[in-house]
Predict the 3D structure of the following.
Amino acid sequence: MKKTVLIFFAIFFSAVSSQAQKYITKSGKISFFSDGPLEKIEAKNNKVNAAIDAKSGLIVFKVLMKSFVFEKALMQEHFNENYVESDKYPLSTFKGKITNIKDIDFTKEGAYDATVEGDLTIHGKTNRIKTNGKFIVSSNSINGKSSFTIKLADYNIEIPKIVTGKIAEEILISVDVDLKPLKR
């Protein structure tokens, strides 16, 4: 796992100039919520790796799928074995860019609206997404938040017929990351 994290950050930082200000976290939060007609499903993951280059606007996330925690152990087992097939597809990633980077001053405290666009990979399937969010810049960190909806079918995640109607075909994903400056 540590080797994977190091490779992840090495690839990210090799793609950006050495002059840029970079921020990272290994404890970001991503949750998802499914509001099906018969059952609500929610899971949280507090071990999300994320990095941002404040100069170029490049942003990357890496999520270990088995790190999602559910209220019910059986839901967690079904999620990993039947839906996202965590053994076969252990990671979800996002690689993108803040498209309105010129509107955000990462050197000045404040709240900034952001638009992020990039490639989200889940279950081995990659789709282009665009979402709005907010960056809150403080003296020692950047907090990034966003929520967006995806369709399970867009990521080849099938809902077994036996539970059709219990599980929503779309899920709401919420992101909340506190990024700290990368120490050199």
